[in-house]
Amino acid sequence: MWVLLAIVIIAGSAGTWAPYEPGIWAPTLFNPIDVAKNIALYVPFGVLGMLTLGRSDARGMARVVAVAVLFSFAVEALQLYTADRIGSLTDVASAAVGTTAGAALTRWLRSAR
To answer: What is the DSSP string of 65-96?
Structure first.
């Protein structure tokens, strides 16, 4: 499920592929609706990451968040090769926040048992 969600994120982030036209890099671009969507999309990423790793400790959370940050950065880098998408570090930060929330929720639910 975690890999399937990653594929959905990549497909949703893909634009019109234009490898010979430079994309737009706006590292501090802030759109509240886009930030909310990214956070909401990455909450399940954090939950599924924790379930996939089978861990509920802080190290597991750190690993899942690190994977999400690297994954999100790669997705943003790929957007530099699209004609209609904008790469932004704000999206990477939003992914980290959403993943942290999902991982923390999973950790909390597991500890409540």
So the answer is: HHHHHHHHHHHHHHGGGBSS-EE-HHHHHHHH
- In sequence order, the β-bridge partners of residue 19 are none
In a domain, 6, yes or no: no
Closest C-alpha to 72, from 53, 52, 96: 96
d(CA 65, CA 46): 7
Q: Which ranges of the chain would DSSP assign to H, the alpha helix?
A: 2-13, 32-53, 58-78, 89-111
- Contact of 8 with 71, CB cutoff 8 Å: no
Q: Give how many domains the chain has, as a whole number.
A: 1
Q: Taken in order 58, 67, 45, 85, is the CA torsion positive or negative?
A: positive
Q: Is residue 12 part of a domain?
A: no
> For residue range 7-47, what is the model confidence (pLDDT) as tens digits?
999 998 888 888 788 788 999 999 999 999 999 999 999 99
